[in-house]
Design brief:
Length: about 110
C-alpha cells in the first residue's frame, strides 16, 4: 500500500487541502454504483463529502483508503418495470385530470359504477 498517494479536498471554511489517501473513507452506493469520499478537514475538522470517479476511488482503495458501502433509502429506490415517465407524460396526465368527466372515465375504466 502506497501511503504517499495524495488526495485533494475542499473545505467550505478553510479552502483547498491535500491529505494522504489513507485518511479517506471511500463510499460506494450499491444501488446506483456511485462513488464518493468522506474525510475531515485537517485544519478545522469539518467533515467533507464529495463525489469521486470510480477509477479514482479504486486507486485510493489500493493506496490504503477505507471502504464504506451504503444503500439509498427505500423511498429513493425505483422499483417496477416499464417505460420511464417523461415530462410529456406528466403534462398529458395533467390535461387529462383537468377534464370535467375525469372521475366518470376513471370509474368506467375500473368497472366501478
Amino acid at each position: 500500500m502506497n501511503a504517499e498517494v495524495q488526495a485533494t479536498g475542499v473545505c467550505e471554511r478553510c479552502g483547498d487541502f491535500r491529505v494522504a489517501a489513507t485518511v479517506l473513507t471511500i463510499r460506494h452506493c450499491v444501488d446506483d454504483d456511485s462513488w464518493s469520499y468522506r474525510l475531515r478537514c485537517p485544519s478545522c475538522g469539518m467533515v467533507v463529502f464529495a463525489p469521486i470517479a470510480g477509477r479514482i476511488a479504486r486507486r485510493s482503495l489500493e493506496a490504503g483508503a477505507s471502504l464504506e458501502t451504503w444503500t439509498l433509502p427505500v423511498t429513493s429506490r425505483e422499483f417496477g418495470v416499464g417505460a420511464v415517465v417523461s415530462l410529456d407524460d406528466l403534462d398529458d396526465l395533467l390535461i387529462d385530470l383537468e377534464q370535467p368527466d375525469v372521475i366518470e372515465i376513471l370509474r368506467a375504466s375500473l368497472g366501478v359504477a
